[in-house]
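User: quick one
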Amino acid sequence: MSDAIVLVAASRHYAMGDVVVKALDGVSFAVASGEKVAIMGPSGSGKTTCMHLIGCLDRPSSGRVLVGGEDTAEMGEAELASLRNRTVGFVFQQFHLLPRLTIAENAEVPLVYAGVAPRERRRRAKEALERVGLGDRRSHRPTELSGGQRQRAAIARALVNDPAILLADEPTGALDSATGASILQLFDEINRAGTTIVVVTHDRSIGDAFPRVIRLRDGRLEESC
Amino acid sequence: MLREAFRLALDSFRTNRLRSALSLIGVVIGVASVVTVTSIAASGTAYIRGMYDQFALDAIQVYPGWDRGSGQPGIVFDAALVSDIAREVPEVKAVLPRSSLGGELTAGRASASAQISAVASSYIAAMGASIELGRSFDTSDEYRKRSVVVLGSEIAASLFPEGDPVGKEVFAQISGSTYRLEVIGVIAHKEAFFADDWDRTAYITYSYAVGKIAADLRIEILTVVAASREATLKLGDDLERFFLERTGSPESANVISPKKWAESDMKVTKTISLLLSGIAAISLLVGGIGIMNIMLVSVTERKREIGIRKALGATPRHIRAQFLVESSVLTMAGGIIGLAFGSGLAWIAVKSFKWSFVASPETAAVAFAVSAATGIFFGLYPAARAAKLDPVEALASE
Ligand SMILES: Nc1ncnc2c1ncn2[C@@H]1O[C@H](COP(=O)(O)OP(=O)(O)O)[C@@H](O)[C@H]1O
Ligand SMILES: [Mg+2]
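Assistant: Done. Structure below.
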């Protein structure tokens, strides 16, 4: 099985005046395609930074990050955006839906940037929303939905362009535990359909349910299985 | 992509209606000024073009001025002058004399007091009048001093209410004598211009008038026909110089060219145009800066949206396009309002000049071009700022 994600001595340093904050410091690991992995660690350990690197939102200060076999370190902004658009779907703790758009329109956004024609966009957005159980809520705006529904809409949007990798940063952090559980179950289904899933969480009870956990502490790898 | 950007732009105005409207005032005033200027110019051009068509512009008319000191005519128009003009002034095709004789015309029981004008045979055509019935003079009418008359349309109608006067006879009473004339044609309706009250004048040949009516007839007006329409404007200047050299006084003769006449009208509009252009430039600058400001505010407020869009795969180019479309849609909305205001203003101005208002598609095109250009120009910097935002930082913002 090929590797969906490879980090080789990846570091991300922030210069804060005289001090250098090592948000991520020489981290190496690989995630195979089709795997389901949790990245865990206490607050401030570098989980979000790590996810930004994997999601091509950021580039390493040093080391290498390969996403879908492509090295992000050398890429320009536009190339990075295109790689992100094709291979990565994001799910955020705060959902990050666009408030003025309906959830169907939200789900279409990645397809707009992929240059998909409007008709096809509508069809695929509908399909994605049906997949997360929101087929009958397509014309609702995010504010008209519950937290769980919003997160499902965000997941539909993340899946709409059929990415190889689904990245979720504390996806259940803003949800009650029952709703959170149902979101995790949805991830499970998505993973079984072949999508690589990386979930960032500081919640031990969530991480324990994952077959593989990557642990971070102070920007370094603690142990990996 | 562009269509999406348009939708987004309209969306964002709906949420910020008042703010968008206020930021547009400068653009509205600017575009309104531009529209007023171009509308007035278009109407003025149409007006001049109308004059070209209405009055044959390859003909320039000259009449003697009055010497202020002596109260005498500044120059006497005679046969010698006619031949001198034809010889000395370049690009002259013909010099046509014209005189007026007051009188009364009768036909059967009908009579009409009329201006009777003695003209060269080619005069009617040279002045751009057209013949409605029958024919105009030909050179043999002139050469043989035939007793023929061409009637203006109103005179023809009052003397011959029952219809076609061609071939009929009329009698002209001039200074106590009666002359029998054969009607050979009727001139189509034409607005009076300068010496010719076309509808109420009866035309006879100059040679007939001198030979058969009054040997001492004075030339009142000379019509100088240019060799070509292009030569007309220069001909006006040349004639002025000719009379100045001949008499030493710029007031000895009045040179009337319709183009000059029209241009003196245009001078007023030139001043107005200049003023409005200044207002347009200033208000477009101020309006543009207002747009830039509102767009910068919008970029700051929507940092998170930009971050989300980038996370979903928007390239810097996509984001730049979104904000450029937004600022130009905003200014084009201002452009539409400005177009309406400006057209109204131009309409009032044009009517006050007694021209007819011309709604030109160019004016609308100019309004759109100017407003879109303002939006794009002043939107460039905010759009570039939005495009350059770091996705991680943008996502983290409130
Ligand atoms: N833009 C930044 N500038 C400076 N320091 C940062 C920045 N982003 C993150 N950090 C620092 O890097 C460390 C790791 O942050 P983060 O990846 O968000 O951790 P986690 O998601 O595990 O809580 C923290 O100490 C944080 O303060
Ligand atoms: Mg975090």
